[in-house]
Amino acid sequence: MTKKLLFLLDTDPAPSVFDTVVGYDGGADRVVGYGGVTAENAGPLVDGTIFTRGPKEKQYTAIFVGGSSMIAGEAVFAAVKKRFFANFRVSVMLDSNGSNTTAAAGVALLAKAKPLKGKTAVVLAGTGPVGMRAAAMLHSEGAEVAITSRSKQRAEAAAKAIKDRFGFAPVPLETRDNAARAAAIKDADAVFAAGAIGAPLLSEKDWQDSPKIELMADCNAQPPLGIAGIEATDKAKERHGKIVIGALGLGGLKLKLHRACIGQLFESSDQLLDAENIYAQAKSLA
């Protein structure tokens, strides 16, 4: 029986242990990781995947592009696709920093709880990989989206990058402190917190009495949480009249989604899994 081989092309110096474990849990028979992969050196690795098996066996070889930087990951993803020609190709998934699967899980759960069309959504710490992907997915649901950053320049750069990739530009907001972030969500219907570990973004008093906010999600599972007053295990739980989702609450769907996408890679040799189709898969699983 042909073995299912998954090759991790990681842009960080060492390939991700997390992605390796989920690769096996997703159905790969063997996971091989390479660190320090760039658009410039990815070519020979890709060649090794496309020239070694016949057309009927190619579906059992797949590539996963990871690492902490979505910008670097997108460059490698593009380089991988550029190497393909005719039927010399294998399926590829991009999930740098877990951003596609994490954002997809969070937004899919929000959309399941309440329709987002016509709503105003604010992505706190929206310039990182998860925040930028979440902004795009919220927009795909019909929401008007803003992203925040401590730096106006960084917010504007992220908005431009989102427009270049997804065709729309969220409103960039500078929020240097807690008070500014509280002001940014004053008129929001939905709040998605995508901050780094150990970076509190809102206190409970900033949102508990809001008559406007309906939905909230926080991606940070490690105390202090991004949004105080939400428990990491919350999954569509009502708190202060809002439906809230904590990092572990969305984490179950994130892992289920990640595993399902890995399994999908081995169904054919021509799949390219990025934000749009990963989000569609998340909605089917939510």
Spatial separation of the terminal alpha carbons? 33 Å
Compressed to H and E, one letter per element, the order equals EHEHEHEHEHEHEHEEEEHEH
- Count of β-strands: 12
The largest sheet, given as strand count, sense and whether it forms a barrel, is:
7 strands, mixed
Helix content: 25-40%
- What is the molecular shape? elongated
Q: What would you note in describing this structure?
A:
With 286 residues, the protein is of the alpha/beta class. The chain has 2 domains: 5-94, Rossmann fold (3-Layer(aba) Sandwich), CATH 3.40.50; 102-250, NAD(P)-binding Rossmann-like Domain (Rossmann fold, 3-Layer(aba) Sandwich), CATH 3.40.50. It is 38% helix and 19% strand. The protein has helices at residues 17-25, 43-50, 70-83, 99-113, 129-140, 152-166, 178-184, 247-265, 275-285, and strands at 5-10, 30-34, 61-66, 91-94, 120-124, 144-149, 171-174, 190-193, 215-218, 235-239, 242-245, 272-273. Strands 7-6-5-8-9-11-10 form a 7-stranded mixed β-sheet, with helices on both faces. α4 packs parallel to α5 (129-140).
Present the secondary structure layout.
Elements: E1 5-10, H1 17-25, E2 30-34, H2 43-50, E3 61-66, H3 70-83, E4 91-94, H4 99-113, E5 120-124, H5 129-140, E6 144-149, H6 152-166, E7 171-174, H7 178-184, E8 190-193, E9 215-218, E10 235-239, E11 242-245, H8 247-265, E12 272-273, H9 275-285
Parallel strand pairs: 1-2, 1-3, 3-4, 4-12, 5-6, 5-8, 6-7, 8-9, 9-11
Antiparallel strand pairs: 10-11
Helix pairs in contact: 4-5, 4-8, 4-9, 5-6, 8-9
